[in-house]
Amino acid sequence: MLSEDKLQKIKEFTSTLSREELIWLNGYIAGQAGALQGGLPSSGTPAALNKKITLAYGTETGNSKKLATQLAGIAKKKGIGVKLAGLDQYRFTDLAKEEYFFVVISTQGEGEPPLLAKKFYDQLHEQAVELKKMKFGVLALGDTSYAQFCKTGEDIDARLEALGAHRMLPLKKCDVDYEEDSLHWIDNVATVLQTSVGSVPAVVAPLVEDKKPAGKKHYNGIIVTNINLNDRGSNKETYHVEISTDEDLDYLPGDALGLIPANCDAAVEEIIALTGVDPELQIQTAKVKAPVRELLKKHLNILYPLKSTIKQYAAITGYEIPEELRLSIPDLLKKYPIKAAAAFEEVIKILTPQAPRLYSISSAPGSHGLGRYI
Ligand SMILES: Cc1cc2nc3c(=O)[nH]c(=O)nc-3n(C[C@H](O)[C@H](O)[C@H](O)COP(=O)(O)O)c2cc1C
To answer: Is this structure's pTM higher than 0.85?
Structure first.
């Protein structure tokens, strides 16, 4: 189709380009072709610059919202128009009109959508809306210590496709250290937007390689200071907490910090006494195999069991327990005693993992110094 002369010139020119420059050029040429096809004057800009996306987030503890806001800023800097939308506010009737729809969403409970996104999630699964016009991508936040890792993201990704939407890039599932993966994801979003011409998107594999899971470093720590910063009479509680660790900390601003609390000995020993379970008995749970005492101390959520855990407890023990009742496991055992230690071994298997409490580090070791203190 091209004359020998033109082809030769292109070969000579492209041989000087890096992979990133070739990807940019690919988008640029696609944009030029798209403009010609529509009879529009050429704008001379890469295709992604003409695209407007909706970036919707579903969050419970704020991570997805914070992340989506950050990713929207990055996308805008790349020249992409972004409408940022919380799924709690999203008008479901707008969905069929969306052309480029990207979702950042977490999973909560035991594989459930965040409370604020539940209405959207239910509508999406219950209504047979046609999404032929839509191209989409999903970034799922989760935690691999849960059995249903990133379930909500998986559900939304699968449902959008089932409703006729075109997946522009594969579902990305992120563990608690999601920062780096999500930056790759937004780069990939920009790349696929550049390579999509008019209404026909090119399906491309992610162009930025996903990293290997970052090695998590564990430190043991004890709380040495815990002060409520709010004044007497305030109905808020904001704590200044200092933790001393058993070895020097190595961190950078932006690193994720997960606090994995251990349960108090009194609650653990109370459970053992109330059930008569052998504390040295090894039990395999969804994630770990360890002696009962260690599971109760370090690995399982015994103080704030989920509604679904209480429901399963009722099924194992045969009690009728009101749905709204929220008790710790020791209190539950006192009100609804277990009749045999073997039944408690079943209960251990339904307890959810102890979830880390996540924070992102903003201080720099350069100004605070490395040490055994955070
Ligand atoms: C009570 C609770 C339950 C959770 N359940 C799951 C789960 O079933 N699957 C999963 O992958 N992650 C689960 N997570 C982890 C969250 O998805 C993860 O912390 C995410 O970053 C939270 O994002 P958000 O702040 O936007 O809600 C759970 C977290 C909490 C606190």
So the answer is: no
